[in-house]
Amino acid sequence: MNERPDVDSGKLGELYVRHADDAVRLAYLLTGDRALAEDLVQDAFVRLAGRLVHLRDPDAFPAYLRRTVVNLANSNFRRRKVERTYLERARSDVAGAATRAPDGGVEDRDRMWQALEQLPARQRAAIVLRFYEDLPESAIADLLQCRPGTVKSLLSRGLEGMRGQIRGDTDE
Amino acid sequence: MSDMDDRVRDLLRRKADDVPPHRDVPPSMIRRAHRRMAVNGAVVGAVVLILIGGVFVGFQAFAGSPPVHPLGNPTTPAPHPTATHTHTPRPGASHSPGTVSSPSPPPSGSTTPARCSLAHLKIAEVGSNGAAGSIQVEVSMRNVGSTSCSLEGYPGMALLAGTTQLPTTVIRGSSVVVPAIHPRLVVLSPGRSAAYVFGYSDVPTGNQTCPTSTGLEVTPPNAYQHATISFQSTACGGVLTTSPVFLGLTVPTS
C-alpha cells in the first residue's frame, strides 16, 4: 500500500485482494446479509476505481473504502426500508418460537444478532464502527457525518434498544 | 454497560469470522470498473469541450460587441456639444508621423458602410489659422482604402512632446475659431476626404501653462487606435475644442 494505486485492473485487483475481506466483514455486520455485503463491496471498489488517480495518499485507501461501504450500506437501508419493515414483522413472529438458552451460548448470540439487525441503520452503523472497527467517536462522527455527541446518543440508544429487544425476547 | 459492550464486541467478532476469505477478484467487478472509468472519462471530456466552446463563444461575442471607447477617445455624436474629455496619457504611445497603428473592427449589423478604421485613413494636418491668441487647425482624414467606409462623431486627440503625452482636455463643441457643426454620418468612398477643425488658445488664462507640443495623436471617431501627426503648438492648459467630422475639406459655416 505504499505505492500509488492505479486504475488498471492489476492494481484494482491487488487492492481488492488486500482489502476485500475487511470490507466484506464490515458490510456484513452493517447489513446482516452476506450476499448483499459482497455486492456492496464490489460496488464500493467500482466507485473508487475512477477516483484512484486522485488519491494523493495511498495509505488512505482503506479509510476511503470504509467510508464508501458505510455510505452504500446506509443508502441500501434507506432503499429497502419498506422491505425490511415487513421482514422484521415476519421475524418477530418466528422469534417467539425459537429455542432460547439462558446463558451466553449460540442462542444468546442469535438473539443479540437479531436485536442488532432490528436497530435503525445509523445506530447499527455506530455500534459496528465502535465495537468492531474500534473507531473513536470522532472518527465515527466523521463517517456518519454528524457530531460526536450524536454518536454518543446513537451508541447509547442502540445498546439500549438491543437490551430491550433481548429482554423482550426472554420475557416472552 | 461494559458487559453489554463486551458481548456486542464478541458477537461482532464471531459474526465477522463467519465471512470466508476473498482471494479471487471478480471479473465482473473489473469490467464494471472499466466501464465506469470510461464513462467518467467521457463525461470529463464532454465538460472540457463544453467549457472550451463556451469560452470561444464568449470571446467571439466579446470581440463582435460594440466598442467601449477608452477615456479621451470621443466616439459617437455627443449628446451635449460641450462635453469635455480629458485625455489620460498612455505609456508607450509612439508612432511615426502619418503612420497607422492597426485597423479597428467595423460595426456589426449596419446598412451603412463599415466604420473607417485607421487602415482606411490617411490623417494629415490641412492647415492652421490664428488670430488674437486663438488658433484654428484643420485635420483631414482621407479614405485610402479600396472600399467605402463611414465616420460619425468627434475625434479623439492627445498632445505629444516627443513621445510623451501632455495633459490634454478635448472639448466637443464650438469656440471663436471652431464653428458649431452638428455631428452627421459621413460616408467616404475611396479617395474622398473628411475633416474636422479644432481650436486652442496660446494665451494663458490665470495660472495656465502652455507646453510646447511637437505631435498630435488623432483617434478617428469610434476607433480604438490612433495615428500620430506632426503638430507644433503651445496650447495653453492643453485645452482643444473640436468639431465633429464633416465631409470634404471645406469647413461648414455655423
Task: Outline the secondary-structure elements.
The complex is a heterodimer of chains A (172) and B (254).
Chain A lengths: L8 H23 L2 H16 L11 H19 L1 H15 L10 H12 L3 H11 L5 H8 L3 H24 L1
Helix pairs in contact in A: 1-2, 1-3, 2-3, 5-8, 6-8, 7-8
Chain B lengths: L1 H16 L9 H38 L19 E4 L33 E11 L2 E10 L5 E3 L4 E6 L2 E2 L2 E5 L13 E3 L4 E9 L11 E7 L7 E7 L5 E4 L3 E2 L7
Structural key phrases:
heterodimer, A: 172 residues, mainly alpha, Rna Polymerase Sigma Factor, Chain: A, Arc Repressor Mutant, subunit A, 8 helices, globular, disordered N terminus, B: 254 residues, alpha+beta, 2 domains, seven-stranded mixed beta sheet, four-stranded antiparallel beta sheet, 2 helices, 29% strand, elongated
Structural summary, described in words:
The complex is a heterodimer of chains A (172) and B (254). Chain A is mainly α and 172 residues long. Chain A has eight helices and no strands. Chain A has helices spanning 9-31, 34-49, 61-79, 81-95, 106-117, 121-131, 137-144, 148-171. In chain A, helix 1 (9-31) packs across helix 3 (61-79) and helix 7 crosses helix 8 (148-171). Chain B is 21% helix and 29% strand. Chain B has two helices and 13 strands. Chain B has helices spanning 2-17, 27-64; strands spanning 84-87, 121-131, 134-143, 149-151, 156-161, 164-165, 168-172, 186-188, 193-201, 213-219, 227-233, 239-242, 246-247.
